[in-house]
Amino acid sequence: MKMKPSKINVNPLYTPIMDKHFKPAILHNHAFLKVVKESGRGVSLCIALERNDGLVSTYNTEVFAENSGMDDENFFYVERLIKSLLWIRGGWKVTVGGPRNIGEYIQKAYSESGIRAFDAKFMSRVFEKPFTVIITDADSVPDSKEDPKPIGRHLEGYRIGFDAGGSDRKVAAVIDGNAVYSEEVIWHPKTESNPEYHYEEILKAIKTAASHLPHVDAIGVSSAGIYISNRVMVASLFIKIPDELFDKKVKNIFLDIQKEMGGVPIEVANDGDVTALAGAMDLNDNGVLGIAMGTSEAGGYVDNHGNLTGWLNELAFVPADFNMESMVDEWSGDFGCGVKYFSQDAVIKLAPQAGIILDKSLTPAEKLKIVQKHLEEGHEGAKGIFESIGCYLGYSLAYYAEFYDIKHVLILGRVTSGEGGNLIQKKAEEVLNGEFPQLAKKIKLHLPDESTRRVGQAIAAASLPEIR
Fold first, then answer.
1. Rounded CA separation 250/225 (Å)
2. Relative to the CA of 99, which of 260, 337, 352, 391 has its CA 20 to 30 Å away?
3. How many other C-beta atoms lie within 10 A of the C-beta of residue 265?
């Protein structure tokens, strides 16, 4: 099956200077729903996603009635919506309640040979169940059943906070919320195929921190990837480890470390969620969405009650651009996803339009540094790159606000270093003020400095477990 482009027109007030064909997801969806409403042929559509422990996220919307001549527009809208919901909320079972042909389209898209086979396979791996699409009527879709948890902000006692990055590992010994020792060590988890390397390095870091404490009450871990019940489901740190070794040696790696450390309470969370938690602790407020622009786009969220939601928050795979000719992500094979808009890939993608030619032999991180140096030297094209990313961000924050209740946005990561971060923030705020004034009154953007973030991340990680 092939996806057909939507004929719904959008007219953005702002266009990225380096990407004139950008079609913001939020504007398309607003325009689609407006046309549905004005047509008088709208019907209810209800989507439910079931994930681990029987938890369910339900989303209600409206589409054209079946065979109203707008089937392709329905398919495009619902496919992009389900894609977004899957990567924000997560799920192994999708229930589609509404026009039957929409459910059938989604079933085909997420089949083994469908256009979203990657997404279906990924979700099966995360939730350890075959990916399933159920078709029903809107009234038979299950209600939401969420279970946000007040994880973190436990500062009492002798704690260890470990942060597993892709290029360095950080650990801190924390006494009653104050870091008394911290270290940062270069390591190479993404190139190692022997899981013993990962185990020994993590254990060494934790034991080093423990040597600076009279005893250890709890261990908190912040790491890129998806973790359920402290088990590693998918994580780029272990990308070189073969599947059979992953299941035997990696899935329970932090539970094995817990045994080695005498069974003290341990809590493992996605690094994006821990970043959002660190921001919430620093701001002394909630409703925090963290977006880290580095190798990819990482996300994390603390809800308005200060809880972690248990959602995936994998914003790298959430569509930002509905232009079907936009850049395709090599891993998922999909177009317009966040990874190509909020990462070093975005900077590299826009460099040719800015008149900056980058040597193909350089690493992505080296290419980013060259563009950042051009920006320091006053290069107008380099300035246009970061302003374009800011334009993407303004529209995408309005899209994310359809799924998250946001008061604060933390913009982080190496793409935001130096003047680039200021340009991104300023342009995003301009877009929010111009296109979405009500949202702009509610959402505040923040650019935390690197040193505050690093110490804050370790303390937030250490605060994850509750000492019972």
1. 12
2. 337
3. 18
Query: What is the number of other CB atoms lying within 10 angstroms of the CB of residue 244?
Result: 8
In angstroms, the Cα distances linking 214 to 158, 180, 265 are: 8, 12, 16
The answer to whether residue 461 sits within a structural domain is no
- How far apart, in whole angstroms, are the C-alpha atoms of residue 462 and residue 468? 15
Which residue has tokens 């404490």?
A: 213
Distance CA 351, CA 345 (A): 10
What is the DSSP annotation of 100-152? HHHHHHHHHHTSTTSTTHHHHHHHHHHHTS--EEEEE-GGGSPPPB---B---
SS3 of 269, please? strand
Q: Which tokens go with 71? A: 């089937």
- Boundary residue ending a domain (225, 244, 274): 274
| pTM for the predicted model, two decimal places | 0.93
Q: How far is it, in rounded angstroms, from Cα 195 to Cα 245?
A: 8
**One domain for residues 331 and 347:** yes
CATH at residue 413? 3.30.420.40
The verdict on residue 53 lying in a domain is yes
Which residues on adjacent β-strands are paired with residue 41? Answer: none
**Would 17 be classed as within a structural domain?**
no
Digit-by-digit pLDDT tens for the chain (468 residues) are 788 888 899 999 999 999 999 999 999 999 999 999 999 999 999 999 999 999 999 999 999 999 899 999 999 999 999 999 999 999 999 999 999 999 999 999 999 999 999 999 999 999 999 999 999 999 999 999 999 988 899 999 999 999 998 878 999 999 999 999 999 899 999 899 999 999 999 999 999 999 999 999 999 999 988 999 999 999 989 999 999 999 999 999 999 999 999 999 999 999 899 999 999 999 999 999 999 998 889 999 999 999 999 999 999 999 999 999 999 999 899 999 999 999 999 999 999 999 999 999 999 989 999 999 999 999 999 999 999 999 999 999 999 999 999 999 999 988 999 999 999 999 999 999 999 999 999 999 999 876 666 667 888 999 999 997
Provide the domain limits for residue 187. Answer: 158-274
Q: Residue 364 and residue 294: Cα distance in Å, rounded?
A: 10
